[in-house]
Design brief:
Elements: H1 15-37, H2 40-68, H3 73-95, H4 101-135, H5 140-149
Helix pairs in contact: 1-2, 1-4, 2-3, 2-4, 2-5, 3-4
Bound molecules: fe (ii) ion.
Residues 61, 76, 80, 116, 120-121 line the site of fe (ii) ion.
């Protein structure tokens, strides 16, 4: 499997979100590496890490949308929910002994993530950017990052 390259068109323009998206891409590439080794235990670890990180990222992103009063946040949240459910199903499939589930999830992740970033995420960016501009001095963002990721950085 090939690595997923980060391309400029995946940048949303919201720095904190782009960092987290890059981290998800790193996880996808780690999953490619683990798959190459064929070691089921490493695959399972990376898989779990990817799911965990994605859930945290989505929760953070939803908080950002909430704070920004983004109009379509409940629809966006539903999309996240469905995706997490799907991820869990692939993981279960893998745990049940279907090793190909890791290849299937990789394919799904690439398509889904790229499409989601370019369309769904791009849509909330203006609202979030506007909010972040006015919230800069209150320290809301760094507090929120600390809460979710345990540090001032994602
Ligand atoms: Fe999203």
């Amino acid at each position: 499997m090939d690595y997923l390259e980060w391309t400029k068109d995946l940048d949303t323009g919201v720095n904190v979100i782009d960092k987290q998206h890059r981290r998800i891409v790193d996880y996808i590439n780690q999953l490619v590496d683990a798959t190459e080794t064929g070691d089921n235990e490493s695959i399972s670890d990376v898989f779990d890490g990817l799911i965990d990180y994605t859930i945290t990222h989505f929760t953070f992103e939803e908080g950002l949308q909430e704070k920004a009063g983004y109009e379509f946040r409940s629809a966006h949240q539903r999309v996240h929910k469905v995706f997490i459910k799907k991820l869990g199903e692939y993981k279960k499939d893998f745990d049940d002994g279907n090793v190909d589930a890791v290849i299937q999830v990789n394919r799904m992740l690439r398509n889904w993530l790229i499409n989601h970033i370019k369309n769904d995420d791009a849509d909330y960016v203006p609202a979030v950017q506007k909010m972040l501009g006015t919230e800069k001095k209150s320290g809301w963002l760094s507090r929120s990052l600390g809460k979710f990721f345990g540090g001032s950085d994602a």
